[in-house]
């Protein structure tokens, strides 16, 4: 069985950045599961998984545009300390949820703290980065009708609900 639309796919991965730093990896014995063809994972990785089969190991190098997008300069904003009322200490690296103009929550990170302002970055932490995935495919099965209706897989490696 090869990976095609509607496949439930399970794979182990190690994610590294341009400098070879490991950013993330699937835990031992717990491969990540996803439903192929539903944008559950970044597009650059999904397209390279297409047609692969169980046991395949490969390295996928993915440009920012096919991963978490380019880093947008307008995503870096300076805001006043007043926005952090109730927060004891504002530190670089702190993450919090802000509200976009359309009301949707967006994740923000503090990247600089000065006396008069705090600089935050609303970009995804991996925006602008070229990502390398070392992938090993451990299982492929047909998705159930319920999974297809939900657009994601259920059970181990997937969504529990
Ligand atoms: Zn579901």
Features:
single chain, 161 residues, mainly beta, 5-stranded antiparallel beta sheet, 4-stranded antiparallel beta sheet, 9 strands, 8% helix, elongated, binds zinc ion
What does this structure look like?
This protein has two helices and nine strands. With 161 residues, it is mainly beta. Strands 1, 2, 3, 4 and 9 form a five-stranded antiparallel sheet that branches. A four-stranded antiparallel sheet has the order 5-8-7-6, with no helix packed on it. β7 and β8 form a beta hairpin. The longest helix has 7 residues, at 43-49. The two termini are 27 Å apart. The structure holds zinc ion (ZN). Residues 150, 152, 154, 159, 161 line the site of zinc ion (ZN).
Ligand list? zinc ion
How does the overall form come out from the CA principal axes? elongated
Tell me the span between the first and last alpha carbons.
Answer: 27 Å
Give the % helix.
under 10%
SS field, number of helical segments:
2
Beta-strand segment tally: 9
Coarse structural class: mainly beta
Largest sheet: 5 strands, antiparallel
Our estimate of the beta-strand percent is: 35-45%
Sketch the topology as an H/E string, one letter per element: EEEHEEEEEEH
Query: What low-confidence regions span 5 or more consecutive residues with pLDDT below 50?
Result: none
Mean pLDDT: 94
Q: What is the gyration radius calculated from CA atoms?
A: 19 Å
